[in-house]
């Protein structure tokens, strides 16, 4: 009996699925288009609005940081050698000295150094 109920359910499912049903079409009426009429007369000019309130003064900004130290400049070029001065004038000849005194009876003896050793 279990088989017959399953078989009956299967056959009825195929039978209902095979029916050709017509789709339902719903016709909606077109929307009414509203056309505006002629414009009316212009209204009076409105009153002038009041002035707005003055804003408060802004805060002062922070002080900026100090900049970096600049680079050291290059060393300048060495100057040229100066000109050499002219040769000075020759001085005058000095006076001739007086003749010296004659020596007495003293004699000076000069001892020669010893000879160098030979290798």
TrEMBL record:
<dbReference type="InterPro" id="IPR008160">
    <property type="entry name" value="Collagen"/>
</dbReference>
<dbReference type="Pfam" id="PF01391">
    <property type="entry name" value="Collagen"/>
</dbReference>
<dbReference type="InterPro" id="IPR050938">
    <property type="entry name" value="Collagen_Structural_Proteins"/>
</dbReference>
<feature type="signal peptide">
    <location>
        <begin position="1"/>
        <end position="17"/>
    </location>
</feature>
<feature type="region of interest" description="Disordered">
    <location>
        <begin position="33"/>
        <end position="119"/>
    </location>
</feature>
<keyword id="KW-0677">Repeat</keyword>
<keyword id="KW-0176">Collagen</keyword>
<feature type="compositionally biased region" description="Low complexity">
    <location>
        <begin position="33"/>
        <end position="96"/>
    </location>
</feature>
<protein>
    <submittedName>
        <fullName>Collagen triple helix repeat-containing protein</fullName>
    </submittedName>
</protein>
<keyword id="KW-0732">Signal</keyword>
């Amino acid at each position: 009996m279990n088989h017959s109920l399953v078989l009956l359910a299967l056959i009825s499912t195929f039978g209902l699925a095979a029916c050709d049903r017509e789709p339902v079409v719903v016709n909606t009426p077109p929307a009414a288009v509203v056309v505006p009429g002629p414009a009316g007369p212009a209204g009076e000019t409105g009153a002038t609005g009041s002035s707005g309130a003055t804003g408060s003064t802004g805060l002062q900004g922070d002080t900026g940081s100090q900049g970096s130290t600049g680079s050291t400049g290059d060393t300048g070029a060495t100057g040229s050698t100066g000109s050499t001065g002219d040769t000075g004038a020759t001085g005058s000849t000095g006076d001739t000295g007086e003749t010296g005194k004659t020596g007495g009876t003293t004699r000076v003896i000069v001892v020669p150094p010893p000879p160098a050793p030979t290798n």
